[in-house]
Amino acid sequence: MSPTASPRLSRRSFLVGSALAAGGVLSACGAGGDTGTFTAALQGSGAAEGIDPGVNSLFIDEVRMKAVYDGLFEVDDTMTPVPRLALSGEPDAGGTRWRIALREARWHDGSAFTADDVLFTLARVLGPPQRRPFIAATTLANIDLSLCRAVDPHTVEIALKQPSYDFLTALSAYGTKIVRNGTTDFAHPVGTGPFVFESFEPGGQFVARANEHYWDGAPELSELRIVGADPDARLAAVQSGQIDYAEDLTPSAARALRGRAGVSLESVPNSGIYFFAMKTDRPPFDDPVVRRAVMHMVDRAELVKVALEGQGEIGNDVFGKGCQYYAELPQHEYDPDLVGRLLRAAGVRDLSFDLFTAQVGHGFIEAARLFAEHAAACGVRVNVVVGSKDSYYTDALETGQLTMGQSGPLAIPNHFASRLLTGSPQNRTKFSDPEFDALYARAQATPSVEGRAAVYRTMHEIQYDRGGFVFYGNAHWNRAARNEYTNVPAAVPNSHRWARFDKVSAR
């Protein structure tokens, strides 16, 4: 029988289908269930999901990919690089050549991981875009492939076009996980990670088994399953025992689980970053004065109170609070009078625009409608347009004037490179500014951390003054796990420890 044919599923046969996606009631596992199989649920995105580490960037994609693959470097909770497949990385005196020492590891087919795999991955990311652009193409654009070389099987030398003393941060970015030399088909991926791929269906279930020869120690779990489900379905499934782990729970779900027998709840502050994104390449947001007006059109306190149910802090149009290179700037306040003065100075009358959204993140629809009320109090008309949740993040890259989004923390240089440099593949705001691009290059070429911080601060100030992002709230990140397991991660999203299940074990 197909797993989706019946609403009564065991943990072993669990698969998110129409019943779970709709929040249907599922039967709980009985005592003595298979604690060697661990099932985790995150927000799904249907056909938009994938398992190619070069192009797929949803939260659920990243969790699957970190099970199968490793990066040379990943980041800790402060978004600072830590070595993984690399043992170390050292620049030359001029900052234009980095020598990366590689650890001994093996691919899931038993072949050795070598410097050639690193060179292939870099060439793939920097080569012609395929069906979708490579996420790290601009982050790694400083690499001069023609001068990169394998010194020996466990040492690679990466040459740069311009000096960069912050290059290890780039090597820890989304889209930089290492793939095997010659890989062209990701239908059955082979990685070096803690779990070996078994099966995957976009919008459905991912299954992987333990890699008994993992370089960082074999997982104690025998099998990992990752499924996509809506927030209500994730709550119901972890309550009933149908799943073992639920990620990115809403504040109301967290309240429902707090103190519940058999379930542990963790809440990581300042970890879910909610934003509006203005397309700066089209009217009305091609005018920086209009963009500045929108920054003061948002009552952040009310958005956090209502849309985020009070579980979070207000944002301030500066990305990366708590991360290295963050800049403290005066709070942007909700100010209808200032909005009016700015719009009059820009010669704008009867301003109206569409806000394109979908229920892909907690409170998106509520936040959109509330913002429309804030704008109306400023004499501005906002038309809320609701799109498909299955294709929203792909559509929002190109569609509409104003969109919405949710991000986890990210190393600030990587946020700038992948989302804000001219031509960045994840440039939701279509921001393009030669001064900003030049400052990024200058920061990379600055040897001292203090010197880089000063340049990055100027870049923050540009975004704060004339950028396209409005960061309205920094939410707590809630996750729940069944108490049958220990060593379940509770970490900042996008960090190395976040949603890694190779150290999880049955109690």
Question: What report would you give on this structure?
Answer:
With 507 residues, the protein is of the alpha+beta class. It has three domains: 102 residues, Dipeptide-binding Protein, Domain 1 (Dipeptide-binding Protein, domain 1, Alpha-Beta Complex), CATH 3.90.76; 107 residues, 3-Layer(aba) Sandwich (D-Maltodextrin-Binding Protein, domain 2), CATH 3.40.190; 207 residues, Dipeptide-binding Protein, domain 3, CATH 3.10.105. The chain contains 14 helices and 19 strands. Strands 1, 8, 9, 10, 11, 12, 13, 14, 15, 16 and 17 form an eleven-stranded mixed beta sheet that branches. Strand 6 and strand 7 form a beta hairpin. Helix 7 runs antiparallel to helix 9 and helix 13 packs antiparallel against helix 14. Belongs to the bacterial solute-binding protein 5 family. Pfam families: SBP_bac_5 (PF00496). Keywords: Signal, Transport. This is ABC transporter substrate-binding protein.
